[in-house]
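Honest question from a wet-lab person: if I give you the sequences of every part of a complex, can you actually get the arrangement of the whole thing, not just the pieces? Trying it with mine:
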Amino acid sequence: MSGESFADRSDRIERARAALKDEARTEPVARQHKRGKQTARERLACLFDEDRFEEFGGLVHEQHGSREDYPADGVICGVGRIDGRWVGVWAQDFTVMGGSVGPLGSSKMQRVIDQCMTQGLPLVMLIDSGGHRVQGGQDSWHFARTGRFFHDLVRLSGWVPMVAAVMGDGFAAGTNFAGVADFVIMVRGTATMGLSGPLLVKAATGEEITKEELGGADVQVDQNGLAHMGVDSEAEALDAVKRYLSYLPSSAQAPATIGPRDDPADRPCEAAASLVPVDSRKPYDVRKVIREVADQASVFEVQPTWGASAVTAFARMGGRAVGFVANQPMRLGGMLTAPACEKIAHFVAVCDAFGLPLIYLIDVPGFSIGTSAEKSMLGRRSARMVYEIGHATVPRISVVLRKGYGMGYVAMCGGRGFDVDAALAWPTAEICPMSIEGSVDVVYRKDYEQAPDPAARRQELIDEMRAMIDPLRAAGGFGIDDLIEPADTRRRLNDILSRAGTRRAVPMPPKVRSISPI
Amino acid sequence: MATRTIRAEMAGVILAIERQAGEAVELDDVVLVMESMKMEIPICAPRAGKVIEILVAEDEAVAEDQPLAVLEV
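Yes, you can. This is the full assembly:
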């Protein structure tokens, strides 16, 4: 290259860079489009504010190989801006060796983690990959050391938001990465997740199963809860990434995001009372209550299809991001199942990590019971729900809409147990240790069976007990702070939030750590 | 065309059948209502589609995971 001018050299670098772009790689790009998928670069263009992506490691190549063999080594890494805030990103490029993770690619992803760690940037992973690159990688010389990748990924958890969008194959490595993320989105029809794909499953165990049946979104989002949300297109997936991040600060130490404040903080919730039937046998959709109470159009439900007897949703109150945790009487009567408990526990951890106050809307008949509940290890799943709120440092408020039964009421932050900033209840509240009929049948069965008219005696016992279960008695014993009118809920919550501050110290004995039940 | 079977998420009794075979449903439309745990529990369409078959009758006791209806989605 002797005699090469500065301009020549710049030109050569630009040509090397241009060769990486989709425009220079028409055939693999066309194949990717034919699969119904965008390229990694197209996805990044949708994700980031216009022209705000700074790539690093784009020019990598094997020591004795050519850059064109594995452009960017199959993963595009860098930092970009979403709504004006920097985030770190890796986007696996399926058009290069099926997006497989090679040694240079791993180093680049490690670099993204390092930048997120030191600069306090959210991490976004766009997953579309066959997993570990076996070609040249099936070698103890390389693999034995493993590297600090997962150690650092775990250390990143809770420091910055971590989001994964699976937009193609996500078996094996993709699932290992996303498994550590706070929020995982899958594109229905193209995304798959799981510890291994169907070919290895068949080779190892003989089980024959399709990709979709093993790890499609219908399975991994709706049935298993491995991922949090299934969407119908890549555009929706990227929108969901942006929406999720919009509620969270860039790191645990960064300032909170503030939304529009155009919905008056004291707006009466006129519709609220009519949304919740007084008859506690009747179902209703608690999402409508959340939408009525929260700032207009601010509600974003997290994990809507799994553990659906509970609702976890980000929203804003007076512009401030909050987390709503609610029982959903529309599904299983609002009972707390293992998925519902796991979903709530995870959501509480996320809200606590990033400083979002928690608002519990309680209408809980209790935990699920019976053989299937025990098989789901509900005893421990429910304990994790308590574990997470027990460690939370953020403000928390409870509002009993209707049923507040038993340990479910405790785990939903009812009463004084978790030192709420306010314990409120609507006039429809029924707070008691277990269902009235259930307690009569369990404890007073002998009593009414020996009566001359057992049915009448049973009813008499039920009526006596019902008279003790009354919102005024709950307020009378000072278990709750006050009874509020449904229409007044938004104003009261906003008043409390305005004085509740951001964090509180949770006094602990001099231990090193707590041990999660799960 | 793909089908989707709606199954009982818990044991209970069928209180009402709100949609019949052949009817179109939107996401979250109530297809059946069950009673369990002293609650009326609506069983909703998990996706938009069409009801192909209702597999239970009113007042029928159903077990957890029993198929209740088949949708075309």
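Two things worth pointing out. Chain B is about 0% helix and 55% strand. The radius of gyration of chain B is 11 Å.
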